């Protein structure tokens, strides 16, 4: 798949997950969010990615946010832990990992 096609497909699947058109368990949603963050920001860098760096990004389905009574900082912390694990991963690889996980979700396809 060409990069642009893959990126557009990623954005479409991500939107479907965020809108709950594709059901995604909370733990998986956090992992997917971390791959989305890696694809957007690259490697985590504490000098650049200060607390609140994810505030403007919609990364989790509303249902997940409502089910688990965590504040924005706590959600960001959980996503950041995974984001740090993806150090060295290329943007294209992060997108591919996101799509691999998404294809195993129940309502996918």
Automatic annotation (TrEMBL):
Keyword match Cytoplasm: no
Molecular function, one GO term: actin binding
GO CC annotations, alphabetized: plasma membrane
Protein name (database record): FERM domain-containing protein
Protein's UniProt keywords contain Membrane: yes
The FERM domain, residue ranges: 1-109
Localization in the cell: Cell membrane
InterPro entries: Band_41_domain, ERM, Ez/rad/moesin-like, FERM/acyl-CoA-bd_prot_sf, FERM_2, FERM_central, FERM_domain
Major localization listed first in the record, in broad terms: membrane
Keywords: Cell membrane, Membrane
Organism: Micrurus paraensis
Domain of life (superkingdom): Eukaryota
Membrane-traversing stretches: none
One Pfam family named in its UniProt record: FERM_M
């Amino acid at each position: 798949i060409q990069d642009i096609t893959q990126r557009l497909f990623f954005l479409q699947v991500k939107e479907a997950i965020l809108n709950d058109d594709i059901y995604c368990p909370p733990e998986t949603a956090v992992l997917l969010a971390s791959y989305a963050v890696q694809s957007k920001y690259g490697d985590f860098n504490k000098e650049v990615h200060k607390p609140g760096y994810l505030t403007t990004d919609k990364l989790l389905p509303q249902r997940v946010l409502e089910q688990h009574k965590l504040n924005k900082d706590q959600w960001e912390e959980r996503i950041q832990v995974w984001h740090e694990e993806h150090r060295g991963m290329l943007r294209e690889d992060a997108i591919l990992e996101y799509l691999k996980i998404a294809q195993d979700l129940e309502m996918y396809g």
